[in-house]
Amino acid sequence: MHLFKTMYKVVRKAEALVRQVSDNKTATNFITKEISPNVSLAVIDNKGFYGEVTVESDRIYYIVSGKLSLEFSGEKVELNEGDACFISHGSSYLLSGDCKVVTVDQPAFGTKKQL
Q1: How many CA atoms lie within 13 A of 11 on its CB side?
Q2: What sections of the chain are H helices per DSSP?
Q3: Dist CA 17 CA 27 (whole Å)
Q4: CA-CA distance, 59 to 104, in Å (whole number)?
Q5: What is the pLDDT of residues 69-110, one digit of tens each?
Q6: Using one digit for the tens of pLDDT, what is the confidence trace for 28-67?
Q7: Where are the beta strands (DSSP E) in the chain?
Q8: Which CATH homologous superfamily contains domain 38-106?
Q9: How many degrees, rounded to 5, is the angle at CA 89 between CA 84 and CA 94?
Q10: Within 10 Å of residue 82's Cβ, how many Cβ atoms?
Q11: Residue ranges of the domains in the chain?
């Protein structure tokens, strides 16, 4: 006997929402707040310096390829292929690098975390 209803959603690459965030940053959104307000997943292609980011959700970056540089209050963190980084909500940092990263936000990107 199952106590919980099973729910799943497959999102094929052709169905993902592609957003041109800036001239040098593209986000391919697979799991969005419309699918689940609790978590989102996107693949980001970044080329060069993006700028300052302030996250409203807890965020995880997983580096698929290339190098990602993050700078937190003057402390620079270099991430390479296969590395991951957790960033807590409310954090601000500078982002740069030529890379492809998987980004997971909890709660989903575009929903504000209730404090």
Answers
A1: 16
A2: none
A3: 8
A4: 6
A5: 999 999 999 999 999 999 999 999 999 999 999 999 999 998
A6: 999 999 999 999 999 999 999 999 999 999 999 999 999 9
A7: 17-22, 25-31, 40-46, 49-54, 58-72, 75-80, 84-87, 92-96, 99-106
A8: Jelly Rolls (2.60.120.10)
A9: 65
A10: 9
A11: 38-106
